[in-house]
Amino acid sequence: MKTRCFYKAQEHPGTVESVTLYFTEPIPDISHGDSHVNTLPAYMALYQTEAKELAEVLIKVLPGGTFDQLLVEMFQKKASHFKVRFEI
User: Fold this and answer.
1) Max alpha carbon distance in the chain (Å)?
2) I want to staple 67 with a disulfide (CB 3.0 to 4.6 A). Which of 23, 36, 42, 62 is the partner?
3) How far apart are CA 15 and CA 8, in angstroms?
């Protein structure tokens, strides 16, 4: 397992706790009947819940500049999804 260490936000106006995130298991396969997550709406809800929880943790614990640059990096990685075709 890889371990990375990052700086956390300064401890004002309150205490910023250190956080450990674990990414250990893939999301269950939707095609398996024994999966407890077996519908597209359920997947969408799972993705939304995990994304919100991850965002809440990161925005609380990361320094503002690191969080801002993380957003930049994430949008750059997905920039091709935002391109609009223009044809004459």
Assistant:
1) 56
2) 62
3) 11
Which ranges of 1-88 does DSSP label H, i.e. alpha helix? Answer: 40-61, 64-77
The answer to whether 87 and 32 are in contact (CB under 8 A) is no
Q: 């993380």: which residue's tokens?
A: 70
pTM: 0.71
Q: How far apart are CA 36 and CA 26, in angstroms?
A: 13
Checking phi first, is residue 44 left (phi over 0); if not, alpha (psi -120 to 50) or beta? alpha
Q: What is the CA radius of gyration of the chain?
A: 18
Return the DSSP state at 28: P
Q: Are the C-beta atoms of residues 71 and 18 closer than 8 Å to each other?
A: no
Decide: 61 and 8 in contact? Cβ < 8 Å: yes
Instruction: Give pLDDT, residue 18.
Output: 85
pLDDT tens for 62-83 read: 999 999 999 999 988 888 777 7
Residue 7 in tokens: 């700086």
